[in-house]
What we know:
- The chain is built from three helices and 14 strands.
- By secondary structure, it is mainly beta.
- This is Nucleoside-binding protein.
Amino acid sequence: MNKPLILISAYLITCSSSSLAANWSTTQLHVNRGEFTNPFTLDEAKTSVFSLQHASGYDYGDNFFFVDYIDDDIEDNYQDRDFYLEWYSTVSLSAVSDYSFKKGFLKDVGLVMGVNIAGDPKVVKYLPGIKLSWDIPGFNYVSTTITGYFDDSAGVAKQGVPSQSNAWMFDLAWGYPFTLGNQKFLFTGHAEYIGSRQNEFGAYVNDWLLAQPILQWDLGHALGNQSDTLMLGIEWQIWRNKLGGTVNESAPQLHVAWTF
């Protein structure tokens, strides 16, 4: 069994055992539709992304993962019925040490381990690091994460994209609920910076900045049904040096989220 399958299997075992002890959990299906640029051919393609997302918290930390199924309307071996997965598990240092890290806006410090897996390109990245959770008035959550970005990809010899040297990542994630009149909204999303590196042929891979802010309208509440269940909105994908190349992109997407 290869490493990605081992990691996925280990994660599923962890989920099935920890879910019984979860203090809270939420699972969502996201559907996005927009037009994106292939950074290698510069072609524009209408793309659908179906994403299963899960977050849960237990006594000693939290877990988060999403799995994307991606398909566009051009057969070019880029995002043609492909999948992409990210998983992060955080251990709260306050919980395991019985020491409070709360000071000012800082709420907690955690140790995080993540993995990113892309299907067709045969990309695997490991992301060990530190997560800072913040207590900012009005926000459901704000976190900043600093990790390594260690490559374990298959590389060209195994029909993948070129493997790369290691780098580092900084990520900011947030959720801000607000109301306008009797309508409920949520402004959420994340922004990440990943440092530059080299591929296996010695070519330079640019650092990149990716931001994905989402403005959601609580459609379920507006229709007189349960709040925080059916959300409709716009997700804006903003890339600088998309996938380490030179393409910059600003792409709005129609966004629907359903909480199970």
